[in-house]
Amino acid sequence: MKRSTLVACLLATLIGLTSCNRDPNVRKQKYLESGNRYFAKAEYREAAIQFGNALQVDPLFAEAHYQLAQADIFLGKWADGYRELQRAVELQPTNLKAQLDLGNMHIAAKEYQLAQNSAEVVLKQDPNNADVHLLLANLAAAKGEMPDAFSEIRKAIALNGRDPQFYLTLGMYQAAGNLPADAEVNFRKALELNPKLDQAEELLGKLEMSQQRWVEAEQQFRTLIQHAPKNIAARQDLADLYYTQNRKADAERVMREAATELANDPAGYRLLADYYVQTGDDERAAQEFAAVIKAHPKDLALKADYAALLIRRGKLDEATKMDNEILKQNPKQTEALVIRGQLLNQKQRYSDAASTLQVALKYEPENPEANYQLGMALAGTGDLSGAQQHWTTAVQLAPQMNEAQLALAQLAIRRGDAALLLQTSEQLIKNVPSDPQAYVLHALGEAQQHQQAAAEADLQKAIEVAPDKAIGYAQLGNWRVQQKKFPEAEKLYEQALAKDANAIDALRGLSSLYMLQGKPQVAINRIRTQIEKSSQNSDYYLLLSTLQARQEDWVGAHNSAKKALDLNPNNVDAFMLMGQSDVAGGSIGQALAETREWMQKNPDDLRPYVLAGSLEESQGNWADAQQLYRKALDKQPDYAPAANNLAYSLLEHGGNTDVALSLAQAAYRALPNLPNVADTLAWAYYHKGTYGPAVDLLQQALNVSPNEATFHYHLGLIYEKKNDVVNARKHFKKALEISPKGPDAQQIRKALGSLSS
Question: pTM of the predicted model, to two decimals?
Answer without folding.
Answer: 0.65
